[in-house]
Design brief:
CATH architecture of the largest domain: 3-Layer(aba) Sandwich
Number of domains: 2
Structural class: alpha/beta
Helix content: 25-40%
Pfam family, one: Peptidase_S10
Oligomer: single chain
EC number: 3.4.16.-
Number of helices: 15
GO molecular function, one term: serine-type carboxypeptidase activity
Strand content: 15-25%
CATH superfamily of the largest domain: Alpha/Beta hydrolase fold, catalytic domain
Keywords: Carboxypeptidase, Hydrolase, Protease, Secreted, Signal
Subcellular location: Secreted
Radius of gyration: 22 Å
Shape: globular
């Protein structure tokens, strides 16, 4: 064995303390062997590995040796990786139509992103899903700490899976996870500069319906509502003038602004923020404070808690009761090799985590990253009012990028699937995509279109 191989082995032995991984061949709710390769496990991070982060790794169903490796973050903060796996773009989905409150069954998703990529779905930050801490102090986290923990997780995961070191690596996240994506990318960049082992084949990152800068993203909601004919010209002009374009965290002493926003709120109070064409149903999404809605409007327009059942058949996603029933089932936890006694109750999106949102804007991270030759994909459902597509278009302009491919439609099966625009600065490439008719999150509404989008982008082919 040469010195490089010996060094790698020593690092693996050093970092493998507390790590565990197992291949899962069958799961309750699915008849027969799983038609995809699933691995679950824990990796310890932080001081004395007091934080144990749980993950699901699903190999590409095409060519795992050559296909890219994608680390994916769900939103919240505090939403489990199972949200992405079962409700978004993973290889399976719950059979909600036949769910009667007992152990749910699940079906296969023909448009899973695992058709073209190896994907690590992580329960992060600590306290999310099946991730836990060995001490009470270990449960405290923040944007900065979570980014560092996830970077450490990724290093250790790659040391435990050296066969994937050569695969092109991407970091991706949706909703609140979009803010952490460039922060983790920055950690990878620092690791490369410090020559930390292993050296990663990092190529770029993906942000879907994401949060980047609260003031920009949230202030885009009212212009978006006006553009989508949800509020009148008169109401919009009044708010724009009296609030000086600052609707989020506006001055409470500015009565003219408050009154203008109140009229707008009356127009929007029965609109589903996550998909403006859907009925406003209960238990549709993460915690209500994720997207600062109550910092824009004074009265309550919060999203109902996830664990309340809904019987409205018109809802796009009726409820998350199926995931709660499945993940809290003892046979499921045994099949996933969950460590006994580490959690009391699994939650789809936990509002009990101790988390400090200490980074309001991720723009400064993007400004550093554009100096590198990374490839970036930013996509938004064009019917998402919680994280409207107008937000990214505004923060792109602060990066001083050059338009490389003008705004145009992109097609799937001859039909317009959305619109795209490409930006460039030196070797940095950013592709922006709207997904026509999609809400928050995009692939749960338009799975075929989103798989097409991802496949083209990973293949470096234009949409």
């Amino acid at each position: 064995m040469n010195s490089t191989g010996l060094y790698g082995l020593l690092l693996l032995l050093l970092f493998n303390n507390g790590a565990s991984q197992v291949i899962i061949k069958t799961l309750p709710g699915y008849s027969g062997n799983l038609p995809f390769k699933l691995e679950t496990g824990y990796i310890g991070v932080g001081e004395n590995e007091e934080v144990q982060l749980f993950y699901y790794f699903i190999q590409s169903e095409s060519n795992p040796d050559m296909d890219p490796l994608l680390l994916w973050l769900s939103g919240g903060p505090g939403c489990s990786a199972l949200v992405a796996i079962f409700y978004d773009f993973g290889p399976c989905a719950f059979d909600v139509e036949n769910f009667d409150g007992s152990l749910p069954s699940f079906i296969l998703n023909p448009y899973s992103w695992t058709k073209v990529a190896n994907i690590i779905f992580i329960d992060a930050p600590v306290g999310t899903g099946f991730s836990y801490a060995k001490t009470s102090q270990g449960y405290s986290s923040s944007d900065n700490k979570s980014a560092k923990d996830i970077f450490t997780f990724l290093r250790k995961w790659l040391l435990n899976h050296p066969m994937f070191l050569k695969n092109r690596l991407y970091i991706g996240g949706e909703s609140y996870g979009g803010k952490l994506v460039p922060m983790i990318a920055m950690e990878i960049l620092r690791g490369d500069r410090e020559r930390l082992h292993p050296q990663m084949s990092f190529q770029g990152y993906i942000i879907g319906n994401g949060l980047t800068d609260s003031n920009i993203d949230f202030n885009a909601r009212i212009p978006y509502a006006h553009r989508m004919a949800l509020i009148s010209d008169e109401y919009f002009d009044s708010a724009k003038i009296n609030c000086d374009g600052k609707y989020y965290n506006h001055d409470p002493n500015n009565l003219e602004c408050t009154n203008a926003l109140q009229r707008i709120q009356e127009c929007l109070s029965h609109i589903n923020q996550l998909q403006i064409l859907d009925p406003k149903c209960g238990n549709k999404a993460p915690k209500p404070d994720d997207f600062g809605w109550d910092q824009t409007f004074s009265n309550d327009n919060s999203i109902d808690r996830l664990d309340l059942p809904s019987t409205d058949q018109e809802c796009h996603i009726q409820n998350y009761s199926a995931s709660n029933a499945w993940a809290n089932d003892q046979t499921v936890q045994e099949a996933l090799h969950i460590r006994k006694g580490t959690i009391t109750r699994w939650r789809t999106c936990s509002d009990l985590i101790s988390y400090n949102q200490n980074v309001e804007s991720a723009l400064e991270y993007h400004k550093v990253l554009i100096k590198k030759g990374y490839h970036v994909l930013v996509f938004n459902g064009d019917h998402d009012m919680a994280a409207p597509y107008m937000g990214p278009l505004k923060w792109f302009r602060t990066l001083n990028l050059t338009i490389d491919d003008n705004w145009r439609p992109w097609l799937v099966n001859g039909q317009v699937a959305g619109y795209t625009e490409k930006y460039k600065k030196n070797d940095f490439n950013l592709t922006f995509v709207t997904v026509k008719g999609a809400g928050h999150t995009s692939s749960s509404y338009k799975p075929k279109e989103c798989l097409t989008m991802l496949h083209h982008w990973l293949s470096r082919r234009p949409l």
